[in-house]
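Tip: read the tokens left to right.
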């Protein structure tokens, strides 16, 4: 079972609908016990980094999320991916979940911000989430901030006048800057691949 973490800043129902379509067992929850019992976790997110971290703290779920993310498949989506890092600089410097090294900063690009719409994934090594996904496949983005993290944590980039970490990972921990639940068959395959990891949780 996948727990979709509800903390007030997530695009919950698009993710719920995609998992329903794939037949992946899941529940939307803000209950610490349900998060502990789940085989995998998804942290969605839309909005501003400091507001989202404030909402997460208000739920009291920070300790259980940080603990459970260390030993079971975990996927952060869009802002949920950005929260995985040590800090964000949107409006003010804000401490993140600290699960991945690096910061989330305003995108520097000659192109229009936000980066909105379809863009190509460029693989940077193998990733279990990209199994069956050809290099150059298109996914859907909506964001103005991007992760700055060592390249060994990045399994795919997108080019938007700068190299944007599109998919990050370390062990069972993954973050997608794009929205797999809004990315057609490519996104569904990525979520299908995430679901396939649940049996490998330790």
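Filled-in amino acids:
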């Amino acid at each position: 079972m996948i727990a979709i973490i509800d903390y007030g800043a997530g695009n919950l129902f698009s993710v719920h609908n995609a998992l329903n379509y794939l037949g992946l067992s899941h529940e939307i929850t803000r209950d610490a016990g349900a998060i502990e019992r789940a085989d995998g976790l998804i942290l969605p997110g839309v909005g501003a980094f400091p507001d989202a971290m404030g909402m997460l703290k208000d739920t009291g779920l920070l300790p259980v999320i940080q603990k459970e993310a260390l030993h079971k498949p975990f996927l952060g989506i869009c802002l949920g991916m950005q929260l995985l890092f040590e800090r964000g600089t949107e409006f003010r410097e804000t401490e993140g979940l600290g699960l991945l090294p690096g910061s989330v900063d305003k995108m520097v690009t000659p192109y229009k911000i936000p980066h909105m719409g379809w863009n190509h994934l460029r693989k940077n090594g193998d990733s279990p989430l990209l199994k069956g996904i050809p290099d150059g496949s298109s996914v859907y983005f909506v964001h103005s901030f991007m992760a700055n993290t060592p390249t060994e944590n990045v399994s795919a980039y997108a080019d938007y006048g700068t190299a944007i970490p599109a998919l990050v990972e370390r062990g069972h921990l993954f973050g997608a800057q794009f929205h797999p639940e809004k990315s057609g068959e490519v996104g569904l395959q990525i979520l299908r691949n995430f679901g396939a990891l649940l049996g490998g949780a330790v």
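The chain is about 25% helix and 30% strand. The CA atoms of residues 45 and 92 lie 18 Å apart.
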